Amino acid sequence: MATATKTKSKKSKSEAKKPAAREAMTEEAVKKGLKKLDGWAHKNDMLEKTFAFDSYLAGVAFAATVGTLAEGFDHHPDMLVKWRKVTVSFTTHDADSKVTQTDFKIAAAIDALPYPPKG
User: Quick check: is 32 in a domain?
Assistant: First the structure.
């Protein structure tokens, strides 16, 4: 006697429900969120900010700290380290490379780091 076997269909990643923090934000929501951050901009579907430092090594140390913080969020930025400047850019790849609440949360955490701005 043959028995029927039920198979569970697995949803693909794109079909699975994304957490709210990983859903793309509307342009209006991004503009509202930027008002709560210091110096961040929305460019090319990314949150971006350039930080200035008194020395190259201070910028490198800052970049390492941002990398460590990002690891804790499981959300990693693109970073460009230049002489006494570090540009940090975030987008959420699993939200079609758009800005999400997660980008804003980590941007706020970076702003809270005890690195004094150059000046």
Answer: no
